């Protein structure tokens, strides 16, 4: 109900506490497969008719993605969906629907309450007696890629469902900096140094805030190393003067020991950034507001973080600080080119 032209929820939002609490605890009355998309996910319903999207844990929280895996064949991570929501909020964007971690019972909360026969048929008991299921989808929905409870407990992410499409139609846009999704092909932006000058002249990037919105999104993606941003969505009702929804962050936070500079291409090639974003990034580079510390504290409030393993492993938090410095350097390089006054990012005290 708090959705505006420029953000999904206000700040502060008195509803956020109770909402997150409900997502984490309300009784699940139904769970069916969500159609669309490539990986297994469920739509869960609550007694008050509220709904949420559940993505199961497929990879241990502290596991690093295999370096030989391409970005388009990576698994989705439930903790990345949760961490992305926190990061987006800390950056001051508020463009990701609230996501919480939740431990569900695959029998009581899914198998026993589902009306989805195709889903129900995929439940089985593993050799060690855990209850597993795999669903139907175009990737990773097979016995080999089943998700399993221990023996029935399964953790996952629960994202608040956006207003139904009958109430709020969304428009899907192809990202101008979309990757090729091929092992051998390069995208235009990877070979044309002057790519941004073309984008800048093309609607809707030629007017309003769309270009700096794409740069905002690129910064978020670079910080969490998400290469899978092929599309973004907007609410049709608000036309072109509106914020971009940052949905589908499951492939973020896969690697902490490596940065992916190409994700920053929109910033590097266009040399544009929102002032408020730049100020926020500089704030988060100060010792007292260090991004990793703010993230650690924020994630600590998620229900799943009471467990012994934190939602984001320490190396991922450290990577956030390192990547933030990279972003600020890129902004400074732009300022120097344009003859503006750079800020001192080496000594963070300024
Ligand atoms: N919180 C939400 N509320 C409503 N719809 C959503 C929400 N999050 C995602 N969706 C919709 O569901 C679709 C699929 O979700 P998502 O992109 O997370 O899954 P995916 O399997 O990774 O899809 P893809 O393979 O297309 O990237 C999205 O394109 C989006 O339109
Ligand atoms: Mn996806």
In brief:
Residues 123-339 form the FAM20 C-terminal domain. This protein has 350 residues and is of the alpha+beta class. The protein has eleven helices and ten strands.
Provide tags for this entry.
350 residues, alpha+beta, 2 domains, five-stranded antiparallel beta sheet, three-stranded antiparallel beta sheet, binds adenosine-5'-triphosphate, phosphotransferase activity, alcohol group as acceptor, ATP-binding, Family with sequence similarity 20 member C, like
Task: Describe the protein.
- The chain folds into two domains: 16-160, no CATH class; 170-337.
- The protein is of the alpha+beta class and 350 residues long.
- It starts with 15 loop residues before the first helix and ends in a 13-residue tail after the last helix.
- It is built from eleven helices and ten strands.
- α7 (210-224) packs antiparallel against α11 and α10 crosses α11 (314-337).
- The model has no long low-confidence stretch (mean pLDDT 94).
- Manganese (II) ion (MN) is lined by residues 228, 248, 250.
Low-pLDDT regions? none
How many distinct beta strands?
A: 10
Number of H/I helices: 11
Percent of residues in beta strands? 5-15%
Please, what is the oligomeric state? single chain
Bound molecules: adenosine-5'-triphosphate, manganese (II) ion
For the CA atoms, what is the radius of gyration?
Answer: 21 Å
Question: How many strands, which pairing sense, and closed or not: the largest β-sheet?
Answer: 5 strands, antiparallel
Number of domains: 2
Q: What proportion of the residues is helical, as a percent range?
A: 25-40%
Structural class: alpha+beta
Kindly report how far apart the N and C termini lie: 39 Å
């Amino acid at each position: 109900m708090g959705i505006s032209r420029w953000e999904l929820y206000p700040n502060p939002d008195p509803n956020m506490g109770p909402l997150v609490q409900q997502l984490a605890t309300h009784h699940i009355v139904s769970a069916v497969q969500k159609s669309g998309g490539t990986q297994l996910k469920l739509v869960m319903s609550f007694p008050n008719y509220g709904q949420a999207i559940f993505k199961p844990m497929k990879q241990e929280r502290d596991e690093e993605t295999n370096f030989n895996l391409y970005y388009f064949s990576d698994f989705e991570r439930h903790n990345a969906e949760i961490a992305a929501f926190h990061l987006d909020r800390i950056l001051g964007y508020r463009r990701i629907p609230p996501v919480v971690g939740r431990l569900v019972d695959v029998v009581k909360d899914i198998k026993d309450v589902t009306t989805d026969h195709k889903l129900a048929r995929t439940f089985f008991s593993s050799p060690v007696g855990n209850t597993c299921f795999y669903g139907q989808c175009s990737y990773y929905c097979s016995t080999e890629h089943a998700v399993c409870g221990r023996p029935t407990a399964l953790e996952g992410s629960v994202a608040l469902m956006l207003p139904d499409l009958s109430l709020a139609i969304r428009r899907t846009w192809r990202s101008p900096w979309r990757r090729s999704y091929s092992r051998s092909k390069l995208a235009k932006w990877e070979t044309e140094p002057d790519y941004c000058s073309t984008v800048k002249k093309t609607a809707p990037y030629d007017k309003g805030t769309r270009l700096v919105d794409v740069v905002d999104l690129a910064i978020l993606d670079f910080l969490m190393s998400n290469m899978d941003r092929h599309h973004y969505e907007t609410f049709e009702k608000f036309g072109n003067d509106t914020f971009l929804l940052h949905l589908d962050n499951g492939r973020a936070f896969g690697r902490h020991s490596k940065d992916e500079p190409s994700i920053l291409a929109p910033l590097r090639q266009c040399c544009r950034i929102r002032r408020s974003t730049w100020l926020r990034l500089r704030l988060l580079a100060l010792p007292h507001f260090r991004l990793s510390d703010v993230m650690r504290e924020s994630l600590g409030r998620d229900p799943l973080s009471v467990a012994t393993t934190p939602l984001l492993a320490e190396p991922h938090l450290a990577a956030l600080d390192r990547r933030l410095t990279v972003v600020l350097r890129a902004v400074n390089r732009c300022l120097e080119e344009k003859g503006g006054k750079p800020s001192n990012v080496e000594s963070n005290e300024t």
